[in-house]
Write a structure and sequence with these properties.
Elements lengths: L3 H4 L3 H31 L18 H28 L2 H4 L8 H13 L1 H12 L8 H22 L4 H35 L2 H15 L6 H18 L3 H20 L18 H29 L8
């Protein structure tokens, strides 16, 4: 049942309401997680600022706990609450109550792997971008931010136990795949689609937001391309499961490669795997095969929607 008052509000009002829900959820869960963290890890409140030092292995479990609770509060809870306000059924609003097509699931799995050489090449090209001299201060800040993110990623991914690997699957794969897709595609893409009245502009805009949110300038372009891919998978099919699956596979591979082949893969260099002098030889056929998979997904999705009037596109 739709909430007529809520759904007739201007998209700007809906975005502000979503931002308010996200702010309240983030602050409430942050306070709760600190209290729980003080109890579970027996760390006084006065020492919490010292936890930012990722070089101390004792801090990593606490940082993982905070990362999990923060992701839940920012990406999982707000879309569910927003969906309840919109139609009193968040699963319906987020399009997660639709069963995915098995053939399209296989296509998405294949696509998520095929596109990796393209993304890694884009990552290398992105890292070569240099800002003008008068923006050297901003560039230095971006490099420091990138280095800090790399240090945190390495501290999180380098685990020696299977339970630690499972924690990483939860923290890096499951929660972000569901939460970020709920947040960016399930809510923001829909609202901006209504506002702009153009699905392509909405998908591009949300892809920019998606990439910018990660605060990693030297990975902006490949994340933007991923955002476009996730956005179109959702728009064409009207089913959130496909971008969730693609997002999950994209995050699952580095987590698993780092754990099972820790001697061959450095977490800080996973974005450059398959690059080098012959990178184009990998990227060009990978791009061609990816486009074939994308075209098949588009045609199959459109055909399914035409055959079943009850299905709707991702708006």
């Amino acid at each position: 049942m739709e909430n007529q008052y809520f759904n007739t509000r201007h998209p700007v009002i809906q975005i502000l309401m979503f931002a308010l829900i996200t702010l309240i959820s983030t602050l409430a869960v942050m306070l709760l997680s600190i209290v729980l963290g003080m109890i579970i890890f027996r760390i006084p409140l006065t020492e919490w600022m010292n936890l930012l030092d990722v070089s101390d292995p004792a801090n990593v479990p606490v940082l993982k706990f905070l990362q999990i609770t923060q992701s839940l509060s920012m990406f999982v809870i707000p879309p569910i609450v927003f969906g309840w306000f919109a139609v009193r059924n968040p699963w319906s609003y987020l399009n997660i109550n639709k069963a995915p097509d098995n053939k399209l699931v296989l296509v998405v799995l294949l696509l998520a792997v095929l596109i990796l050489p393209v993304l890694n090449l884009l990552s290398v090209l992105n890292q070569e971008i240099r800002l003008p001299e008068f923006l050297s201060g901003i560039e230095s800040w971006m490099k420091r931010t990138e280095e800090q993110a790399a240090d945190l990623t390495e501290a999180f991914l380098l685990v020696n136990t299977f339970p630690g690997y499972l924690v990483n699957i939860l923290m890096v794969v499951l929660i972000p795949a569901f939460g970020e897709e709920f947040f960016f595609r399930g809510v923001l893409q829909k609202v901006f689609h209504r506002w702009f009245r153009n699905p392509h502009v909405a998908i591009i805009f949300v892809a920019v937001l998606f990439s910018a949110f990660h605060m990693q300038f030297y990975g902006f372009i490949p994340r933007f391309v991923l955002g476009l891919l996730f956005g179109y998978l959702f728009f064409w099919s009207g089913n959130i499961w496909y971008p969730v699956l693609a997002h999950g596979i994209n995050n699952f591979l580095p987590v698993s490669l780092t754990y099972f082949f820790r001697n061959q893969f450095d977490p800080a260099e996973l974005d450059t795997v398959g690059t080098g002098p012959g990178a184009w030889l990998w990227a060009i056929p990978a791009l061609a095969l990816s486009m074939v998979a994308i075209v098949y997904f588009y045609r199959k999705s459109v055909s399914s929607i035409n055959e079943n009037p009850n299905l709707t596109i991702g708006i």
